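Notebook, p. 212. Picked up where the previous page left off. The plan for this session was modest: take the two constructs that came back from the sequencing core last week, fold each one, and keep the raw output in the notebook itself so nobody has to go hunting through shared drives later. Recording the first one now, exactly as returned: residue sequence, then the C-alpha cell string.
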Amino acid sequence: MRVLIVEDEPKMATFIAKALEEEGFALGRVTTGDEALEALMEGAFDVAVMDIMLPGPDGISVLKHYRQKGGKTPILLVSARGHVSERVEGLNAGADDYLPKPFVLAELVARVRALGRRTPEAVSLVLRVADLSMDTITHEVRRGSDVIRLSPREFRLLEFLIKSAGRTRGRMAILEAVWDYHFDPGTNLVDVYIRRLREKIDKHYEPKLVQTEKGVGYAVRNPQA
C-alpha cells in the first residue's frame, strides 16, 4: 500500500515515515498544499496522512478542492490543534479520519491500515492500456493472453506510469514515486528500469506502449488511441 505523507515539519515527517516504512508501506512525501493536491490528483496513493497547517493552501483547503474534483483517496488529517470545531470542519470537508497531535505512532499506523482496507483499490483494481493489463492486488501483469513477470520495482514503475494517465513523467518524479528518493542520485537508474520494462512488455508486442519524450521523461500510453 502506498501512503502519501503531507507534512512540512521535517522531524515529524521523518517519525511518521519511519513508522510506516517499518510496517512495509511504500511512501511518498510532500511539504506544501500545492504539492499535496498535485500528488493526490495523480491517483498513485492508497491513503494520505495530511497535516492541516501547511505552506500555501492549508490541509482543509486541499481536502475540499480534492473532493470537489472527485478525488476518492482516503485521507487522515492530523493537527496540533485538536479543537472539536476543527475536527468537525475537517470531517465535513471530506476527511476520512482525524488524529490530533501529539499522537502515538502505533495508533497512526493502525488508522492508516484501516483506511487502506476501505479504499476500492484494496478490493480490486485492474489497470489497462491497450492490451496491457495489471492487477494491483494480485500483481498479475498480462500483455494480451501472455503473463508478464515483473520484479516488485518494475511493477511499481509500471503502475506509477499507468496511473499517471498517459502523462509524461520526468526522472525526478519517477525517482520520488518508485524509489522514494527526494534527490537525484546521479545515476541512470530510471533509464535502466525503463529498458527492462520495454524488454518485457514491448519487445515482442505491438503497439509499443512505453513512450519517451526526449528531454522530458517517460509515459505509458497507447499511441494508436
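Okay, moving on. Second construct, recorded in the same format:
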Amino acid sequence: MDPQTTLDPTIDASTAPARLAYENIVVAVSGPVARLTLNRPATANSLTIRLMQELVQAIESLHEAREVRVILLEAAKDSKAFCAGIALSDAAPDRAFQMVETFHGIFRAMLEISKPVVTVVNGAAVGAGCELALFGDLVIASEKAVFAQPEVRAGLFPPIAAIILPHLIGPKRALQMILTGERITAQQALGLGLVNRVVPEAELEKTVQAFIAQIAEQSAPVLAMAKKVIFQSMGLPLEEAMKKSADIYLNQLMGLEDSQEGLRAILERRKPVWKNK
C-alpha cells in the first residue's frame, strides 16, 4: 500500500487538513476522528527525522479542522511493534541536534493541539517509541504491548521520559524505568497509571472505537478547554491552579454556545446538539 493522505469524501474541505503526500505515515479523517498511522512496519516504525517531521506536519494541519474532535495515533496493522525508537540512521552524534529538535517538535505539537490525542499500542513501544506512546492524552494497549526506556544501555537517557515519567508515575518508579531500562508489560503499565485500558488484541479495535466515540460525541471547544486547564495547571501551586481553572471556566467556557446548550439539554431532558462554538 502506498502511504498517502486519505480523506473521507463526506468531510467538508474547509474542516479537513490539507492534502499532503506523506511517505511514512497515513492520515485518515472520518467525521470527528483523525487517524495518524505510523506506516514503516518493515522497520518496526522506527522514527526517522523525516517521519517525525511528517507527524508534526500532520498534527499541526488538524488545528483548523473544526469538526475533528479526537486524534488517534497508532501503528499500521501489519506492524510487529508500535515503535522501536529512533532510527539508527538518525541517531548518530552529527544528527543529534536535528533529531532532538524534531523529536521535541512532536511533543510540542501534541501539547498545543486542542484536540485530545489517543495512542493505541499493540506491540512494543521502546525508547522514543515509548515516549511517543505515553505522551498521548489517553493510552489504550493490547495485552501484548510492552514499554521500555532502554537508552541507558546505550549510554544515553530519554529526554522526554525523564520529564514526563516523574509526573505520571512518581520519581522512584520513573528512576527505576530509566536507570534499569527494564521492560514492563501492559498490565504493569496499567497498574502504574501509564495506560488507561488494556484489552486482548482481538478486542482492541472494538475497544478503541467505543472509547473514541465517547469523546467524539462531546463539544469540540469544551474538550479543548478541559485539556487546556489540565495541562496549564499541572505543576502550579494549588491556589494558582484553582484561579487559572476558574478564569477559564468563567471567562471562556461560560461564553460558549455549547455550554448554554448543554445546560438547556439537561433541563429539557434531551441530548444536546452541539454547534462547536
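Notes on construct two before I forget. The mean pLDDT is 89.
Flagging for discussion at group meeting.
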